[in-house]
Structures are given as C-alpha cells and as structure tokens.
C-alpha cells in the first residue's frame, strides 16, 4: 500500500508541474510584447515582476547572406521579415520555397527603458549552428557558421549570453547556418530579460532534464533488478530498458548534457544516439505491453512482429545514413511512433475488455503520454505552441506503469494469502461448500431446461418453416399445372384467353423466382456469407438519397411522402456520418416503403423522420404510414420469415413473408436495431436505430 501511495503522489506532483508549465507558457505567450517589422518595444515592461520576454514575431531576415551587424543595418532596396519561432523551410520569398540547408542572418531592434542593467538572452536549439551579436559585439558562438558546407560545423545546444545594454536602443543579430538537419533556422522561442532571470531559466532547463534523467534511470535500474530476482516476468526488464533508453535520450536533446559529460562525442553522433534511443524505447514499449498482457498478445502477434521489424529497419537507416538524410525522414519516425502508440492502445483496450489487472491505470498513463507526444510531434511541424512536454508525460506514464507492476506483485502475495485462507475455509466448512455446489447444479439444471425449451421452440419453428415453404411453393405450382392442363386439353380456343393463361403462369413463375431468391438471400445473410461494402455516408446525402428514390413514385400513386430531418435541433446533418452499405440499406427501405404503399389507400401519407442522439451516437429513423395497420397479436412475429398470420398483408398482395426478415438481418449486420409499432386501422411505424458519429470538418 505504501508503494502504491508513493507512485500516486509522484504522478500527481508531475501532473501539477505539467499543468503549471502549460498554463505559464500560454500566459507568457499572450501577455508579452511581440516583434513587429524587426522591432520590439519593451519600454514599460517590468522584467523583475513580469519575467523574461519571448522574442516572438517578425524579425528582419536576409537569406543566403551572413551579414555583420554593420552590414545588416545598411539601407537595402527590399527588407524581408520572417516569423520567429519558425524554420526557414516554410518561408516564401521571391526565390521560392526554401529547404533546410542554407544560411541566413536574423536582425532585431529592441527599444527599452534607459536602464544600464546586465541583460541576458536565452537561446534554444537553433539548427544547426549560429553566432549571436549584440550591439555590434560577438557574444556567443555555437558550432561554426559558414557559407561553405566543408568548413561548417553543427551544434544545437541551448545557450545563454549576458551583456550590458546601455541606452534606450539595442540591436541583436543572429547568423545561422545549417547543412546537417532537415530543418533550419530559429524554430523555437529565444528569451530576453535580466541576467539573473536568464541564468535561472537556463538552470531550470538543466535541472528539469537532470531530474527526469535521474528518475527514469532509477526506475529503470529498479525494474531490471526485479527481473534478475524473477526472470519469468519479462515485462520488468523491457520496462527497465525503456526507462533507461528514455533517460539517456533526454540528455542527448535540449542542453545535450551527454556532450558535456563526453566531450569527445560529435553533434552528429549525439543526434544518431538520440534517434536510436527513441526507436529502442518504442520497440521495448511494444514488447513491454505485449508481455504485460501476454494473455491477449496472440491476437496482435503479426502487428508486433511488423513493428519490431520496422523499428530495426529505422535503426539501420539511422546508423548508416548521413545526419541530413535521416533527419529529413522525421515524419517517418513520427509515423512509426504513432503506430506504436496505436498498437499499445489496442492491446490496452483488449486488456480492459478482458478485465486484466492494472489495465485502466496503464491506459491512463499511455493516454497522458500519447497526448503530450502528439503535442511534441505537432510542435516539431510548427503546429503547436508549447514544446518538450513528452518527457514529463513519459515520467507520468512510467510512474503509472510502475504502479501497474507493483499491483501485479501485490496481487501475487494477495493470491497466496487468498489460497491459504480458502484452504482453511474449505476444511472448516466443507458442508456449506457442498450445499453451494448443489445450488449451482440446480441452477445449471434450470438453465439446461430453459435451453431445451428453446431448442423445442426452434424445432417447432423449423417445422413451421418447411410447412410454409411447402405451402408457398405448392399453391403456385398447382395453379400453373391447372393452366397447363387447360391449354393441353384445348378447352380454351380463343388466342386472347390463351395469352391470358400464359401471362398468369408467367406471373406465378416470377413470384416463385422472387420467393426462391428471397429465401436464398435470407439464408446467406443468416449464415454470414454476404459481403457488405460499407462506406461513410453523410446524413444529408442519405436523406437526399431516400427522397430521390421514393418521392416522385409515391406522388404518382396518390400518396403524400415526406422526409423530416430533425437533426437540425442539435447538430447539422452535414457533420453526421453513417457507415453503411448503401445498396443493402436501399433494399431495407424498399421493403418498408413498398409494403406501406400496398396497405395505404390513396390520399394517405408515408413519412420518414430522422433524429440524431448525441449521447448514444446513433441515428433513429421512423418510417410511418397511415394504412390499415397490423393487429397487436401479430406484432411479435412480424419479422419471422414466412409469417403470414395477417393474410391481408401478404397473400392477397403477393408477399412471401421474407422481406421483413431480410430487412432485420441487414439492419443487425450494420450493428443496428429494428422494431415496429402498429394497431388495427391505426397505421404502422417501423423504428430503425443505426450507429453514427460526428465529424468536425465534413467533406462535401
């Protein structure tokens, strides 16, 4: 219990830190002044109370020019501005769209209060080398900036610089060169403020990475120790390797603490290690969830092997290809991570379905991690405002997974205690257990008796089925035989009368063909041998399809037809999608509509009403006629095949009694339901419920 409480406290602490970081980032980004046309006005900004200022906005930008501060301030025919933060890959100037490779100069003019304090600039990872000039003086150099790819050297560590800025104006010039990464430029926010605030931010970044590294390393080593003690549980070592891989990945990014620990490593090797560790973590995560819920693993075995093979292939690419090449496939790595997340969720949901121990806790951890990983993926594509949330989500996830493993071990002890207690109780109360078993046998006997009655009912239904088939086939065959004998005995000489008999025989044969076709169709539906071609159909298109199919024909028969769309009360139908086989659904509505036509006199009405239920994500469809209706005692059997209790609704109109049974099978194979309400002389209403879901941006 203490171990579980510890994990919950740690998880809540990390979630609190995450929420504070997100809220703080959003507040800072909204309140701070912005760079406009290369100028930022921070006059009146109280750095001591309001904190650092993100240097976000439109900087002066000179592409394929490494300008000194003096040259950057010289008058130019055309001045270009580029957004920061943003990679220059997406900038659009007169030369066209840029790639990640190249070099450029950024320039910013700051207007501030005339206070001669010690100021500082915190610079994020800028891809992939840069020089910082403040008021014409070079104050920071990371990597080697050069127009020549051969003399250029990459380095993307986060850095800070401190300097005096007397007077009311200051100038910042940043020269950037990149030939090693698929993205180039200042794509994260730099920060400007007082020196002590800049130092605090830099230390906080380092402290955060160090804490995350220490936590993950400690948890990883602990679970490897668990595996050494109990090697049967493979998920413990996989979880340990996952933690250690992510711990060392943290120190290869951001401040790149690994380069500080091992100065002999190059930026290129550090980047390879970062990508490889990410893939190792993903592969061990797949293995961990597989062995954690090993009872459900066989169903996804092929996917598991595919993901392991895909990860191995990506590791091979990372090792063998140049940095500028494999980083250009960043989207491929991210798609692999998304595939891993989907596999983990699939396994987790399967485990929840089978009530596996700790499945809900594991799902919460993976959900938090997935959301924050998605945020960082969007941030890497410059579609999200907040960076580096995945490490915090990872720690939250890992602590919750540790809780799951702790529950597993606690469950083992609990099971042992339970078995011991059960043995004691078994010896002490054997008679009570015998009575309990006897009661269970009585219950099972009652259940078997119920099943026998159900089988008897099915046998009676089968006999009725063959009786109905025999009747429905014998009657038209007898009539056809009588017509043929009349023609054979030459009782009828008139050609018109002979054609009449031939036409009657053809009608009966067509009815037989229709009956046999319906029987064959129903048999295939019940046996699951019909392939459905389901497609996503907007509700408004489905409604239009119904109106186009029946409105004109029913009007010609003297009936009023209307299709009422009641979804506008809640949501527009253009945002609701059904996944149906349109031909099969047309078959259902043909049966319902044309049955209604048979039993509705001229001047009557047939209406369709459609309503969306947001809570259940379903569409409720009502097909109502003002016809003769169905007797109450016939309603429970109306969907039974060949049921023709009410002869007026079948035999007199040529019905086979199979159409509604086919409609019921089609609806149920769409995961829907169908029912009926009616009364003698009060019309009939069929109710259909189908799954549906909303989309945010409907495709027309």
What would you say this structure looks like, in words?
There is one protein chain. The protein has 700 residues and is an alpha+beta fold. Helices cover 53% and strands 17% of the residues. It is built from 17 helices and 21 strands. The chain has helices at residues 2-31, 47-50, 69-73, 195-229, 234-250, 257-261, 267-292, 301-320, 323-326, 330-353, 359-380, 390-428, 430-488, 495-527, 539-556, 582-598, 659-669; strands spanning 39-41, 53-54, 57-63, 80-84, 92-93, 96-97, 102-111, 118-123, 129-134, 137-142, 159-164, 169-178, 191-194, 535-538, 560-565, 576-580, 605-613, 618-625, 673-678, 684-691, 693-694. The strands form five sheets. Strands 1, 3, 4, 7, 9, 10 and 12 form a seven-stranded mixed β-sheet that branches. Strands 15-17-18-20-19 form a five-stranded mixed β-sheet, with helices on one face. A four-stranded antiparallel β-sheet has the order 2-13-8-11. Helix 5 packs antiparallel against helix 7 (267-292) and helix 13 packs antiparallel against helix 14 (495-527). 34% of the residues are buried. Mean pLDDT is 79; it is low at 1-10, 23-30 and 645-654.
Task: Name the features.
700 residues, alpha+beta, 7-stranded mixed beta sheet, 5-stranded mixed beta sheet, 17 helices, 17% strand, elongated, disordered N terminus
CA-CA gap between termini: 56 Å
Q: What is the count of β-strands?
A: 21
Report the sheet with the most strands, covering strand number, pairing sense and barrel closure.
7 strands, mixed
Strand content: 15-25%
Number of helices: 17
Briefly note the structural class of the backbone.
Answer: alpha+beta
Mean pLDDT figure: 79
Overall, the morphology is elongated
Stretches with pLDDT under 50, minimum 5 residues: 1-10, 23-30, 645-654
